[in-house]
């Protein structure tokens, strides 16, 4: 995966003694199981990366400008990182959050704050990713600390100045075959079009349709947003029918630009139909500002059902990422904006919430519904049983807080016995940090290899089967599920 | 357990090279723990099977006809199997679901569909059971696949034609000591009586009292059902008092035919008393079709409490299997009937729901209440604390989706530290597929041996104690808890 | 930890062959991981005990009388023990529950009942603690059973008669540096003052402020309690303002006596502000007996928020132990009182419930909020994300039913990947049984060592880092979090 031009090779681990970039990292400790896991991992280590969902900006690759600096690359925009620094007593302001590009001195200062506070990250996935990126992408062979912060900063800066560390060069070196972005329905997808039209860039960068804010009629700015949607789509969104038509047109626009999926993240996944008349009435009330909160919720649930219907029609995969209380700390939200580390999960429920959708479309041949959760209790109780019956339902990879070694293994242990492997959607990195993409995929390959190795060692699966499974998880499932 | 006349012996594992019927299957991979686990397992491997709860039809043994064919034996009636085939894109119709006996050609076709799709079952308990049954009961030594499907089909057909593969012969070969069935309160239990009266059959086949539909007054057909109940019991069920008397009589009838338990599966386990007057009024309203949905639920909760009271009186063990949304996919339910793979669990709650019951009867010397769940969160939070105080409460074995290797180990890890082993009810196979009974019990013995071996290896239990525990789990607990 | 004067040394394990007091007990079975775990454990084994929360009576140490007898020491007052005996069919009355000091004959009888029923405790933490205490504190080298009960009883009695087994001697031998008790706001803390003033006692015994009953206005006796609170504080508690002032005064009194924390255990942790006028009105209605149940709950939620505000002002750490249904079995509660083994957990929720508190005070530099739960589902879903952002939030150690080997490892696995180690509060024994304190702390050190060893073996943490972490968990975190 990282064996591109100019990359430090992953097998030359002896070059990183202080960082414990051990070739067997994340594999099970028991020697007999580890030997099997190593064989499985080696069979998929160098397969291309397929990334059907993430948050990298297509403009990054279209413009292909050098990455600015280590703070911007590893700290400031990454709420996984700033979160735990904030908990450790570092003010978000001192990390440059919400302030755009930082002067070089301040960037170095921000980087130092991370390095000094690295002990707070011990045992977290963030720390694993960070060290892996530094070692494998930038050739750093020292553990970040107050003492090493400046030297590492300088080394990364030196790398970033090289053409081989520009986004497109890394894209190629990382072995990325497909990368999906996440985009607003009103986006003109110019960056995607530019990349597709550029003969010097051979990767696939696809948009994904993320219409959340157009479904949340109680939020400030909704009326203006749907008005703009109407303009962009060339449809009057003054009626619910117009809203539907505008959505359909923009989905078609996205599909023409290569999109294969939509993504939805609301407080819950309830899908409850309104009659055509009710939908129209509530929609207009919402536009007029006279809808009650309950009506707004009802409208969103109806709209989500409508989106599933559209997926049956146009074949776009429907991803659901529900049940997070966004912007939990109001004062931080006000000062620093969203995605600043205080989105906190709540209980999720799928069985009853999705029933109206699944009764209508659950066996539709065109529907593929990929379900994500931050509530692990739903893995064995709801998600695996649903994916184990409905041909449309796939289990998304462990997401966000759960995209970490032990959580990933809990996910596999919780769902496999009911739903097997084929009902899961393969690894999805959901990454914002571009350089974390290869290490996240590598982590996933290691963990799935370890999980399968245990099944082999316990004589629950033959090793030839495990080889087929791990390869299918890495490239087969995402290609099938996301139509790539 | 399988060492009966004519059976392939379980120790001759070298005869099944392609199937990995390894003698250490399901035991922990760590060699030191495995050695202990093996010793524990060997000490219980050949103990008789006690099956206090399942769904085998007593008529199967009374009639003792040959099993029809591999599709009927392994696929069509087994919603564990058809479920995942359906998710993999095979229509239920193409599996013969809901269509009675299949012509030989079609049966072979159904069997092929399973074999071709076996990769979808990798890592599931179903696949483990299937291979184990084929290997251990039918001597099949190849992994099912498109290529081997026909040969395996023919081999199983050839077996089924032999007298040694008729139900009673298998019953004996499997080493079944007691088998409980699940029966409607109106059932005349003729098959049970015939078996009991037959001097050539020495096994015990006992009925269990499953009155669910008589408690669900909002369901279609309830009024007719309770009318029929009245007829069978010789009591007028036009009043609630009559309903109670009819239930009591039928329970006594079941007890005279050997029953030691009742089984209840409703949306929840809430038990809330009505006054005598309210109960009577709501019951009559339900009969008249004028009860509200809320009243019907209230009536069911009162009736469940009444059932607990009856258990105190007549000593029948009360099993509760709550919190599954049955028939989640309406169109499939309409076309193929219930138990066709789309029952999906929901959250369960026991602490508050059972409080009225436990405050009344929780310390009654005659009550034994066995609690099952598909919501793993209740294991450590509610079920173990309840069973750790109330002498009447026992923890049922991991059920349905949770009757699988990793889930079983999670169950033991979740409950043992609070409730120990004696508050669990021993293994319960809940099987519909007759030939899966021995492999399910064998799986349970292996898993409990592995769990105990870890405690021994971690010096949390001495090995002599572990031997006592594993033996108690296999035969001691079920005999004590179910009065067998 | 146990290497005090006259104590059987912990390393002389060969002296306890029948008890399997193995030096590697509770460490992971895999030999490679165990070697690392042993090194980590040995580095913290002898560190002093810091106990920031528990239920030992300060008078025990102030009076320094000999412990009465084995039943009083190990059985009667310990609901962890009587609970499972009760479930096993032993009446609470036959264990002396609720009856004060027992005559010697009856005490011996109670002790025998425990020994006879020890198999019911196999695999539980209670059994581990019991055997550890007997072996390490009293030098007992036989497994308790019907056969050994009398001899062990006599051996413990003989020990208890010795001055070296009086509370203060054990306190010193156990290596306790700080011990916090749990006290009513009206307590005069005379015992604490006496200990502090006694030059012959060098340990620190600190009170903690537990005001639960003054917040539960719907409970019988509340009005009298707040009246008494007013008297003790010298403030008229006839108004809500008076209640607040009284609380503030008593907190200050506690702080002057060394308290560093408060503790709160209610049905939930909801914190919802009332206006000053509403609070006053509802409070007066509650005093007048005319508040509705909903108003009482609203008042409690407002009061809890007020308590958080006070913590910001006076710096007392706020502990929350929510979501247990206390006294689940009414008849037992009536006959034997509270804390008799039938407190049963229910679902917990933190994300929404604590939001009002955290929006107000979550980033206040003076607030430290330690959250405990009996609902494991909240570990990864809510608690780790909260502690991973809010600098005020710390994760309490696994509590009560979850303070057991497998549950502790599940806790670490569930929270570490999101919140690391520094956001956890270190071990908290919550002990009522004085002699269980050292074995509980020792258990925690073993388990954390084992958890860290696995991370090292999987190359997720370097061993030098693991050494820093385990030491920080044992003494660093509790000192920092509880200001000790």
TrEMBL record, chains A, B, C:
Q: Which InterPro entries match?
A: Metal_Hydrolase (IPR032466), Uronate_isomerase (IPR003766)
- GO:BP terms for this protein? D-galacturonate catabolic process; D-glucuronate catabolic process
The GO molecular function terms of this record are: glucuronate isomerase activity
* Reactions listed under catalytic activity: D-glucuronate = D-fructuronate
Q: What family does the Swiss-Prot or TrEMBL record give for this protein? A: Belongs to the metallo-dependent hydrolases superfamily. Uronate isomerase family.
Pathway(s) served: Carbohydrate metabolism; pentose and glucuronate interconversion
Q: Which Enzyme Commission number(s) are on file for it?
A: 5.3.1.12
Protein name per UniProt: Uronate isomerase
Reading the lineage from the top rank, the first entry is Bacteria
Keywords for the protein's UniProt record, in alphabetical order? Isomerase
EC top class named in words: isomerase
PANTHER family the UniProt entry points to = URONATE ISOMERASE (PTHR30068:SF4)
Checking SUPFAM superfamilies in the record gives: Metallo-dependent hydrolases (SSF51556)
- Regions that span the bilayer: none
């Amino acid at each position: 995966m990282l064996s591109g031009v100019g990359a430090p090779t992953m097998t030359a681990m002896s070059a990183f003694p202080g960082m414990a970039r051990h070739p067997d990292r994340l594999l099970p400790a028991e020697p007999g199981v580890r030997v099997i896991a190593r064989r499985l991992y080696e069979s998929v280590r160098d397969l291309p990366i397929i990334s059907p969902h993430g948050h990298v900006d297509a403009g990054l690759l279209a413009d292909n400008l050098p990455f600015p600096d280590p703070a911007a690359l590893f700290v400031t925009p990454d709420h996984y990182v700033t979160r735990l620094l904030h908990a450790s007593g570092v003010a978000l302001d001192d990390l440059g959050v919400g302030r755009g590009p930082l002067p070089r001195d301040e960037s170095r200062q921000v980087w130092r704050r991370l390095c000094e506070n690295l002990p707070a990250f011990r045992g977290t996935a963030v720390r694993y990713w960070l060290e892996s990126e530094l070692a494998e992408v930038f050739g750093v062979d020292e553990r970040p600390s107050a003492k090493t912060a400046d030297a590492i900063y300088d080394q990364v800066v030196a790398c970033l100045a090289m053409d081989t560390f520009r986004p497109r060069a890394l894209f190629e070196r990382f072995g990325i075959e497909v990368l999906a972005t996440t985009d607003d329905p009103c986006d003109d997808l110019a960056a995607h079009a530019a990349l597709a039209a550029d003969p010097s860039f051979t990767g696939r960068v696809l948009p994904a349709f993320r219409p959340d804010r157009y479904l949340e009629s109680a939020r400030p700015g909704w009326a203006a947003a749907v008005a703009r949607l109407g303009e962009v789509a060339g449809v009057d969104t003054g009626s619910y029918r117009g809203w539907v038509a505008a959505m359909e047109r923009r989905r078609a626009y996205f599909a023409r630009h290569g999109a294969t999926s939509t993504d939805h993240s609301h407080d819950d996944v309830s899908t409850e139909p309104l009659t055509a008349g009710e939908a129209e009435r509530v929609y207009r009330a919402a536009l007029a500002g006279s809808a009650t909160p309950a009506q707004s919720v009802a409208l969103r649930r109806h709209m989500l059902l409508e989106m599933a219907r559209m997926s049956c029609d146009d074949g776009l995969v429907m991803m659901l990422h529900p049940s997070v209380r966004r912007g939990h700390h109001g004062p931080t939200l006000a000062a620093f904006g969203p995605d600043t580390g205080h989105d906190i999960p709540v209980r999720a429920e799928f069985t009853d919430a999705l029933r109206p959708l699944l009764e209508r479309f659950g066996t539709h041949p065109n529907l593929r519904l990929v379900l994500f959760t931050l509530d692990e209790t739903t893995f064995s109780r709801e998600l695996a049983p649903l994916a184990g019956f409905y041909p449309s339902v796939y289990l998304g990879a462990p997401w966000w807080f759960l995209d970490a070694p032990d959580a990933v293994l809990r996910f596999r242990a919780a769902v496999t016995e009911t739903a097997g492997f084929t009902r899961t959607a393969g690894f999805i990195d959901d990454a914002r940090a571009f350089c974390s993409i290869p290490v996240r995929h590598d982590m996933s390959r290691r963990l799935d290899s370890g999980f399968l190795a245990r099944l082999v060692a316990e004589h629950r699966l033959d090793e030839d089967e495990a080889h087929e499974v791990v390869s299918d998880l890495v490239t087969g499932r995402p290609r099938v599920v996301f139509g790539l």
